[in-house]
Amino acid sequence: MMGNYKTGKYYLAFSYGVIGILFYLLSVYTPLMADDFSFAYMYDRNGANISSPIMNLYDIVISQYNHYFVSNGRTPVQFIEQLFAGLLGRDSFNLFNALIFLLFLWVSASFIGQKKNRHYIVSTLFLLFWFLLPVPGETLLWMSGSVCYLWASCFVLLFLYFFFKIDTMDIPAWGYPVLFFAGVFAGWVHEGLTVGVSGCLFLYFCFHRRKFQGNVVPLTLGFWCGTLLVFSSPGIWMRGMSSFDLMSFIMLRVRFALYIKMFWILIFILLYLYIRKRDLFKEILKKNAILLGIAFFEFLFGCLIGLQSIRQTFFVELFSIILIVKYFVDYGELFYKYKIYFLLTVLCLFIPDYACSLNACMKNYELYQSVFKEYRNSGDGVIPTDYKRNSTWFSTHEMNRFVHPYFFTHNAHYYLNCYLPYYIRKDRLIVLPQIAYEQLYLNGSFCRPENRTSSIEGDFYTIPGTDFYVMPLNRNDSKDYESMNVSYKFNMDSINIPWYIKPIRSYIKRLNPNSNLPYGSAITKLKDRLGNYYLLIDKPYATDLGVKVVEIEFIPNK
């Protein structure tokens, strides 16, 4: 018996080691991107300030004070982000990120119990997290996303781990301030997570007042104070209240409910138990009241704020996965009977998927490094790339889910193109597809008759695989086109939607573009090597669907 237990411990240590290495490799091949660049600088009341790079810890403290008022209130995790982006670097982050993921996996498994089968549980959780957690490239690997989702979840799960055990601990009164500030730290990490946890705990103690005593009081009060701090951030409210449209308001809430998967599976299991096995249903509710409550509160809060990004489904899906695994481990006899077959089957799916994901991360990393290198060596910030954007009916990008889906573009005003010049301290960045770089920037042969866009009135050119139209300019044309807005008019009859998508078309905003769309910051002025000037005009996403642009109008920005 003792030998089996020791063997299980060895298997568990081996599992953690392999998982850590696999995750570390993915993290290594995830470059700095997007918000990572801006966090290398101090924030003032206008946002990231390029003239004030992070030099020490005091700079981060001042920066996060301003960040709280202009962006969001996730101060503890954003402090960590600035620590790595400004001081320690991405290489250090990769190691710590892998360690946090292992801690995240360990604390998730701790809620399930069953020490003698822990290595099976850890492996199962890892595989389910791998396949089912939403957009892992943004929530687990991207630095800004990882600290806000993976790290924040890890801190809150650790809080819940101690919350369930703290009444059995002998903690002296002088340790209560430590508990309080630990609770504040955990409650302050992310409003999308801690508001649901706080709401559940408040309701729980309303029905179990006698349990609100002893060690749990300072820990819970601290968590509530942290939640109040993150939720009271003026930056969050300014972002959330920037605009209001009733139809968009409703659809964002519907989208959140449609994008979650594991929560609905959890609901199905509970409904089945309620109908067929009422006693077991009551037992599960009693044993898992807080975790179930958190999953429901996360769902309600997600529906309340609406789906701005798929990342928002991370927390409700996380708790749903933990609860589903806990149910099958505690009550599913088939789990123990067929656990080896289940793990082998999922492992056979995992190995090729991991190889594909690692390959995608490596290619994406090479693309980013090539942009960094070319941009540093360029004289005017115009560089080529081999990156190709592949759109689908549902998204403007079709890439591996472990890769952040956005890349640098031809548009010098695009936020990624704006961040990198801040980081490298050069002029603006224009990234062109290789063929467009050669024909447009190097030899001026792009604007020839076969590339002319016949559907649009005027002198506009394009080629397949590019995201922009080209309009040649007279050298004496002194208009400030880049400050103007662009209005597109479409021929909606040209859209060609497959029959199997037509029934759900009304539910997908992307498939219902307006016949007339205005865009700001859609124009980039380019000077080629020969001294000729061109306007690069963004193609609206509707062209991915087959919609033809019939008119482009420049509107002065008042």
UniProtKB/TrEMBL annotation:
<feature type="transmembrane region" description="Helical">
    <location>
        <begin position="118"/>
        <end position="135"/>
    </location>
</feature>
<feature type="transmembrane region" description="Helical">
    <location>
        <begin position="176"/>
        <end position="204"/>
    </location>
</feature>
<keyword id="KW-0812">Transmembrane</keyword>
<feature type="transmembrane region" description="Helical">
    <location>
        <begin position="12"/>
        <end position="32"/>
    </location>
</feature>
<protein>
    <recommendedName>
        <fullName>Glycosyltransferase RgtA/B/C/D-like domain-containing protein</fullName>
    </recommendedName>
</protein>
<feature type="transmembrane region" description="Helical">
    <location>
        <begin position="93"/>
        <end position="112"/>
    </location>
</feature>
<feature type="transmembrane region" description="Helical">
    <location>
        <begin position="341"/>
        <end position="360"/>
    </location>
</feature>
<dbReference type="Pfam" id="PF19528">
    <property type="entry name" value="DUF6056"/>
</dbReference>
<feature type="transmembrane region" description="Helical">
    <location>
        <begin position="287"/>
        <end position="307"/>
    </location>
</feature>
<feature type="transmembrane region" description="Helical">
    <location>
        <begin position="216"/>
        <end position="236"/>
    </location>
</feature>
<keyword id="KW-1133">Transmembrane helix</keyword>
<feature type="transmembrane region" description="Helical">
    <location>
        <begin position="147"/>
        <end position="164"/>
    </location>
</feature>
<keyword id="KW-0472">Membrane</keyword>
<dbReference type="InterPro" id="IPR045691">
    <property type="entry name" value="DUF6056"/>
</dbReference>
<feature type="transmembrane region" description="Helical">
    <location>
        <begin position="256"/>
        <end position="275"/>
    </location>
</feature>
